[in-house]
Amino acid sequence: MSEDWKAYVRRIEDLAARSGLQFHPVDFEAVPDSFMMEIAVYGLPVRMPHWSFGVRYIYQLIQRHMGNSRLFEVVFPGNPGHAYLAESNGLAENILVTAHVLGHADFSRNNLLFRRCQEQVSEHIVEHAANHARQIQQAIDTYGRHRVELVLDAALALEQHIDVDQPLRRPKYPEYLPEPKPLVDDEFRKRFAALEPSAPFTAGEVRKRAPVPPHPERDLLWFIATYAPEMESWERDIFLAVREESFYFYPVFATQIMNEGWASYWHARLLREADFIPQQAYLDAIKCHSDVVRPIAADQQIALTINPYHLGFSLWEKIIEAEGLEAARKIMELDDDFGFVRNHLTRELADELGLFRYSARSDGQIKVLEHDLPALQESLLHQKYNFGAPSVAAKHIRVDGTLELVHDHVTDGRGLDPERSRKVLEYVHRVWRRPVVLTTVDGQGSGLELRTP
After folding, report:
1. Structural domain span for residue 351
2. Global pTM?
């Protein structure tokens, strides 16, 4: 890859700042394509070792050899942000990617969900994750790879089961139920209480312990790390490290359509306004932009199943055209993909983009199901609920230590795959070290209880 693109970085940054983008500094680095793939698979340049990442790497490698996947850049929000560009990129691609990354940097600095999660985790996530990797390597050296891998199996099987509505650093539940609130000090209540006075609380009286958990707990990583009866401290540290990194990744997942669309809108706009880019590089970059934001046909349940770049870019263009850039920035700051799609994907735009729900038969016949807009919106968002994981909560710890889990199949609108669920329960049992029971439904909606051992 030619190094000429680096001469344009500062000029594109200046243009972006003059255009109103507000971003933390970004460190740009060109890396080999193989390292790019490792970053994309692991999610971070340095991360805890685990066999599951190797499986994902092989999948991505196959996809690339089949021509179905190519990585131009991987960006990590923070202060500073980190952007890794593929060495195989040409000048035009890197000019476009630089502008695209600055759109991401503006989004992650100003979007409320990103800001809240980064404030709790760290604005230096790359360094933070490297510390986690070193801690886990120390655990491997001390306790052996096999023991550490068993804990990582369980933690990573639950990595989506967090609750971002709770703070990252949560206190334990109250140990006791709250004491009854004193009666209102009025004459009627005093006279009523005097009819049958009750003995006042004495120091020797036993207070009633609060149940654990006091309510269904969705943050399974935190709950197990905090309440597993025999978990060792290094095992808890691994669970909490995985949870911390999941908090970092959640905004990326929950704002993908918005974020990729915002970055695509701004790379296109900055390219148009960058009169310092050579004409041929500009034309090549525009061609690359067209490839990035084109709709991608797929064999799933939504026609032209969703290229987030395409849908997000189209939505932002419509919003800015109708309401102006300042209104768009306010939406960017406050929304996630749920509000963005529900509030701004209109029937007219859905028709223009060719989005509709359909079913595909095994013989290849396609049938349009409906043009109902709310149903289409929910189809687009369905896989985003609960971080893309089934809604499972810790419900109760029995006297013998058995952990009861419950699946909210009504909210999910589906049952669980018994084989995969049993495997996850086996992972959980290894660290809980007591029986684990999960209540759910099967594919036909009938009640199902899974347990281990």
Report:
1. 294-383
2. 0.84
